[in-house]
């Protein structure tokens, strides 16, 4: 009997708990890999991905390389430049890893693991630089804006660290929940808080104090809808 089959049988014995069985089932890639478009699709993932790709590639990279003016008018300093780069990389990885999980095929499993490790580094660096930029390098007395973005960053780091801990414990469902919420909360909430400036063209001084808390709350609701759809394998 091959080692792989022996491991699978051992995982299914009464000695193995339910989490270990689920881990081995999820970690075992499908013999026939899925197509690149045949992933964990939901309308919430699509809407969030389209907006955040536009936000990071067009706006984020445009500001970083001087092709677009910064929304706040402040020049791009080195800390903010690192934040833009690592936050964009982290977001792009989350988009892919939420859509394709290890069970979709051997290629997806290998890519998922490598990208996940890259995201751990990028996410932590993005958070540190984001906090420094929000409260020091680019702070302009807009307290609700800084608080909202810091809240999103805390959700991101908390989610990715919890997800890392859960996969180390072979808790697949817990890992899925943490990583899905890391995408919807950590990646999307900072984008929602910039929506009035980036999309609607408002200046920071024109935004009412209640707008940012409302946008954070909307991001939390959007994330819960995305999580429910993903766990139920529904598109909406």
Automatic annotation (TrEMBL):
The keyword Membrane applies. The chain crosses the membrane at residues 43-68, 80-99, 111-135, 147-165, 177-195, 210-231. Keywords: Membrane, Transmembrane, Transmembrane helix. It comes from the Eukaryota. This is Aste57867_6116 protein. It comes from Aphanomyces stellatus. The gene is Aste57867_6116.
